[in-house]
Amino acid sequence: MLGVDWGTRRLGLAVSDPTGTLASPHGIVERGDDPDADRRAVVEAARAVDAGRIVVGLPRSLSGREGPSARAARAEAAALADLAGPDLPVDVHDERFSTVTAEQLTRETGRRRARRRPVDDAAAAVMLQSYLESRR
């Protein structure tokens, strides 16, 4: 599976192992001016790793409500599903705390903030791991 942390500036990507047990960061796609190009990049990444599903992070509020960001994520997931076709289904999954968790893990490496890379792919891995565990 390919997990996507759909940000305003970057798309964090994560992949699961073939057994659907473990998610790992896979890379970051810098967003451009063309949303269709961003979507194509995600579908191409999914196909390159032979993913059977794309999971887009759903940024709900702490209360669980869906605000503008969650509605935008659902719209991106729907557009991805149209582009990917029926052989590559697209799901959404709650991503609350994924970025916070990824930042904590990055801090624990002991690197200074200026030297740390963006955590978008790590956040995608946290979200995808949560998705994998919810399916067990």
Question: If you had to describe this structure to a student in words, what would you say it looks like?
Answer:
- There is one protein chain.
- The longest helix is centred in the middle third of the chain and has 17 residues, at 68-84.
- With 136 residues, the chain is an alpha/beta fold.
- Strands 3-2-1-4-5 form a five-stranded mixed beta sheet, with helices on both faces.
- It contains four helices and five strands; from the N terminus they run E-E-E-H-E-H-E-H-H.
- Helix 3 packs across helix 4 (120-134).
- Strand 1 (2-6) and strand 2 (10-16) form a beta hairpin.
- It has helices spanning 35-48, 68-84, 98-107, 120-134; strands at residues 2-6, 10-16, 23-30, 54-58, 90-94.
Ordered list of secondary-structure elements with their pairings:
Blueprint lengths: L1 E5 L3 E7 L6 E8 L4 H14 L5 E5 L9 H17 L5 E5 L3 H10 L12 H15 L2
Parallel strand pairs: 1-4, 4-5
Antiparallel strand pairs: 1-2, 2-3
Helix pairs in contact: 1-2, 3-4
Summarize the structure.
This protein has 136 residues and is α/β, with parallel strands linked by helices. It is built from 4 helices and 5 strands.
Which key terms come to mind for this protein?
5-stranded mixed sheet; alpha/beta; 5 strands; 4 helices
Spans of 5+ residues with little confidence (pLDDT < 50)? none
The percent range for helix content is 40-55%
Q: What structural class is derived from the secondary structure elements?
A: alpha/beta
Q: From the structure provided, what is the oligomeric state, counting identical versus distinct chains?
A: single chain
Strand content: 15-25%
Distance from first to last alpha carbon: 15 Å
Main β sheet profile: 5 strands, mixed
What is the element string, with H for helices and E for strands?
EEEHEHEHH
Tell the overall outline: globular
Mean pLDDT: 87
Name the strands of the widest sheet in spatial order.
Answer: 3-2-1-4-5
Helix count from the secondary structure assignment:
4
Radius of gyration: 14 Å
How many individual β-strands?
5
